[in-house]
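Exercise 7.
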Amino acid sequence: MKVVNIEQGELKKLEGRDAFFLITPKISKNMFVGFTVVSVGGETSPPHSHESEELYFVVHGKGLMIVDGEEKEVGPGDAVFIPTKATHLTKNTGKIPLEFLWVVSPPVLPGHLK
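Solution. The predicted structure, written as tokens, is:
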């Protein structure tokens, strides 16, 4: 068993958000797990895609998910499935930080997160 606290995760400070890498390819060959905090008015730009499937689970705040041009409002308790190679972007539309857990499988990240 491996337990990784968010304070132990690798922090990537990006424009408008912080991404914490928790379960990385060093730990798992099948998934990459992280946690993102999008600041008020921030977004997960640039729009990007993966050679993997991705799942977001929103735990705090509200936002707008855009996946291959389809837009949906999301909030706490929502799970969002993003298919392989789908271009996606998340915007914080609320008045508090938007926080979500994400899982990428297989564990391949786009270049801007490496």
